[in-house]
Amino acid sequence: MEESNAPTSKKGAKKAEAKAKKEALKAQRAAELAAAAANVTLEDDPAQDNYGNKQTTASLFSKDAEEVEIRSLDESHNGKTVVVRAWLQNSRVQSAKMGFVELRKGGNWNIQGVVMASEEEPLVSRRMVKWITGISPESYVAVEAKVKQPLEPVHSCRVSGLELHITKCYVLAPAPAMLGMTMAAASQPIVNFSDEKAQEGDADAGKAAKPAAETTTPSASMLTHLDNIAMHKRAPVQQAIADIRIQVKRIFRSYLEDLRFKEFEPPCLIGAASEGGGNVFRLPYFGDEAFLAQSPQFYKQFEIAGGRERVFSIGPVFRAENSNTPRHMTEFTGLDLEMEIKDSYTEVLSVLEGVLLSIFRGIQERCADEIETVRAVYHSEPLLLPEPGKEVRLTFAEAQKLLREEGPAEFANVRDDEDMSTPQEKALGEVVRAKYKTDFYVIDKFPETARPFYAKIDDAGTTVGEGVRVTNAFDFFIRGQEVLSGGQRIHNPVELEERIRAKGVDPESAGIKEYLTTFRQVGVPAHGGGGIGLDRVVAWFLALPSVHLAAYYPRTPKRLSP
Amino acid sequence: MEESNAPTSKKGAKKAEAKAKKEALKAQRAAELAAAAANVTLEDDPAQDNYGNKQTTASLFSKDAEEVEIRSLDESHNGKTVVVRAWLQNSRVQSAKMGFVELRKGGNWNIQGVVMASEEEPLVSRRMVKWITGISPESYVAVEAKVKQPLEPVHSCRVSGLELHITKCYVLAPAPAMLGMTMAAASQPIVNFSDEKAQEGDADAGKAAKPAAETTTPSASMLTHLDNIAMHKRAPVQQAIADIRIQVKRIFRSYLEDLRFKEFEPPCLIGAASEGGGNVFRLPYFGDEAFLAQSPQFYKQFEIAGGRERVFSIGPVFRAENSNTPRHMTEFTGLDLEMEIKDSYTEVLSVLEGVLLSIFRGIQERCADEIETVRAVYHSEPLLLPEPGKEVRLTFAEAQKLLREEGPAEFANVRDDEDMSTPQEKALGEVVRAKYKTDFYVIDKFPETARPFYAKIDDAGTTVGEGVRVTNAFDFFIRGQEVLSGGQRIHNPVELEERIRAKGVDPESAGIKEYLTTFRQVGVPAHGGGGIGLDRVVAWFLALPSVHLAAYYPRTPKRLSP
């Protein structure tokens, strides 16, 4: 549903109205002048109906010309007359009688267009050749053309075995003569992810980015990309990333639906900063205060209490963390699930392992083209996956031991009862890859010190380090970076209250009280689940230099637009 | 991803720790006492292994007993031993040797369980009969039972042709003896939707609710439902509504994916209150200010500018409107789409009409059971849909004329150049239903006065009333209530700036400037789209008395929990 826009005050409206009239007149005048100029060029050309600027294509094309997508063009079209809508990417004048254009649509599908003067029908004038080859790159055009086989394959185009001999060409949406960022620049790997306009280069980002090829087109910064959002999105590399992201969501959803999981929508606006107080956004709410949800954790559990058995959600979560790194965003998309447990929390672990492996294998299979497009810009090694049945699951203590024994010297003293740091995680990723030949693995049985209050303590009473108990909780990693966190939750209200107190949280505090109450009000079956960071899964799978490249509109402490 | 919980201050943590220890001791003592009491009852019973409270069901059941869902039970199970997990809904003692329980799972699937003392294997003691029939309703149990045919069908249960002769019964999650809201109460129609605790009854809500049957169980207020969220969700009527909502989303998505629409995720956090300033939530953002998106409008258009061709999104939108009615929420789910237009905006209208009709026909077909479950509580007439090819599309002027001529006398003077009020819309719904035999219709060509600045003005220059131009914009209605708003957007930056000024908005203002810039930076093809309110579609399709019933966690100006 859309909002009507209302002027804020009558006075302001009047003033704006006067200004508007003046400006509208000015704009109209400019438009008339432009139209006149266009007419001068075309009006005495016998081919004038075959080209020009148009608002609509209704009744412009031959009736027998089939409209096709570039991606669908194949040998069966050879010799036929077709209509194609596309972005005019490049043009080149060969002579006064001949020119070439490159047409692109659907990500990285492009084809060569040829425009050649002809005095026979269909008429193509020299002026028309000049006009077409003068169209600003990135204008949206509709052409009528005869499909022909070129003398030799057009290597610069994906559809290399066919070309379009253009007989009509209309500009539906003209691009300006100067673009804020060219397609060539938009297709270069981004090295600078800083949000600061003045500052050049960002050490962290710079280190991670590996330009695929030496090139003369300079790389634009992420800032320039976001300030030219349409060009950023049109670049084949971003189209490919967006398409891969779609598949990740789709596989997550369909895999779970096949296992009888039901989707639900947790709220974003919540009444209390229930999970950790520090990183939460607060806002005024009708004389009171509201918060933005940091995760759907409590709500997934309410669904289980409400008899929904197995649930998942896909939606935004928020972190008010002032971290200006290529790994952080203030808003990102969570893929979350929660399920009843019958006998053991490993049922949850297996579902999560299954869904992630299914996602990785699925996109390797379905998105081979897109992955190749991304790798041509951001080079990376394929993600090494374990053979079926040889998935790697280490306990936290086993992982720390591995790091102590086979990792870099600086980690020779890591403890089994303290959480891992990011550098430790990355180092472990390399050790695991060398030892087990996989970039994907699970670390289970985290110590209670490293987990929130709702994590279920191991029933066997296992302890690590100085008597710290372990939990039925785990993280999943790819390339040494965490993409999933999950585990069994406490479902017994007495046990839950005890853990809340032990973590130094007041069970009577806002949010916590309502949470506890739900467990006391009804019996809640044993359950567990996990949360996947969609942006990170996409970014780390592709080994992108920043998670911001995987997001549609990345939000950082310094960036809220577009 | 989950958040670790950190205590807010060291001092507070110490104090909380001391308190926690004390409380934990108390809780432990209580647990020990409860355990002791339970042991006293069971320890000298020869059948003691066949019942009791359990944390897990591992190795409790016979190896040959198949675990089945109640919904899957059929004649093929007759005579077999099965394991069933379910909510114990009711119990009844027949004699010291026999009792009945009602087991429920998967919304409204229930079956009768019989427990009969037996001295032969499998052993069922009288104490076991007493214990089972004494289990608090809404406890979560796992039973082992022999499936048998009852002497006559059990009319109170959906699985009426079979019953479970229970030989083992374990409580996995005990409900308390007193529920805050019983299942009987939770299954009554809600009449009072007020957020005020003191105030009884709400005129608007009360008028709309139509209890399906006279009953002695009193109806609980929406407040009581939300304060007992697990019981609210467990009620078959809410399970059915949730399942219908899932199908609506699923059909929306699959219908559009078949038409090559691509999903994307617009941001919630935005840098400017770009669409209408009044009803937007504001929040502090790292020394600056952020806003919560009121719609994905601008972002859908950026996707089109970015060459994504056809996009849709499903996600939360926010309105800071202090409206305490059963029609409003501060957070709801938008189903949005945007697409390139080839020749006419009616292409958009047709896709939207197609997707909504597909949703309505789809849920009538796929969710017949769920609809029946809802109607048993909230009575309604089936939604009348037009026959294929006989869809009703009226222009705004035609609709107003119809209302003047065939509507109630109070609307005899409605104007063609002023927006409709909610009572007008409802009255029109009745006129259309009487005349065209449909509850679903489109009103097209809204006057520019009733549409936001981005609405494209009709190319033919049509005017209504006192020279007001009409737009290529429309609303869709069911039962006289708007569920969709859409139309063609302006894609020419000169025209767009003119309309922005004409609406009294400053083109240099935050948000608007960036929006306009995108259209100037690149050529943007003609496009249009629409937004559907998911909560309203579900609520009005089922003729529910409040949209709050269709939401998972309704947010109102006075309610942010649970």
Can you tell me the overall shape of chain A?
elongated
How many helices of chain A? The count is 15
| Low-pLDDT segments, ≥5 res of chain A | 1-10, 198-212
Count interface residues per chain for the largest interface: A-B, 149 and 147 residues
Rounded Rg of chain A: 29 Å
Mean pLDDT of chain A: 90
Work out the number of β strands of chain A.
Answer: 20
Proportion of beta-strand residues of chain A: 15-25%
- Specify the oligomeric state: homodimer
- Percent of residues of chain A in helical segments? 25-40%
Described by strand count, sense and barrel closure, the largest sheet of chain A is: 8 strands, mixed
Distance between the termini of chain A: 21 Å
Structural class of chain A: alpha+beta
Q: Which sequence of strands runs across the widest sheet of chain A?
A: 8-12-13-20-19-18-15-14
Biased composition (Low complexity) (chains A, B): 208-217
Subcellular location (chains A, B): Cytoplasm
GO molecular function, one term (chains A, B): ATP binding
Keywords (chains A, B): Aminoacyl-tRNA synthetase, ATP-binding, Cytoplasm, Ligase, Nucleotide-binding, Protein biosynthesis
Characterization of the model:
2 copies of one chain form a homodimer. Helix content of chain A is 32%, strand content 22%. Chain A is of the alpha+beta class and 562 residues long. In chain A, the strands form 4 sheets. The first copy, chain A, has an 8-stranded mixed beta sheet, with helices on both faces. Chain A has a 5-stranded mixed barrel with strand order 3-4-5-7-6. In chain A, strands 9-11-10 form a 3-stranded antiparallel beta sheet, with no helix packed on it. In chain A, a hairpin with a 2-residue loop joins strand 3 and strand 4. Chain A is elongated, with a radius of gyration of 29 Å. The two termini of chain A are 21 Å apart.
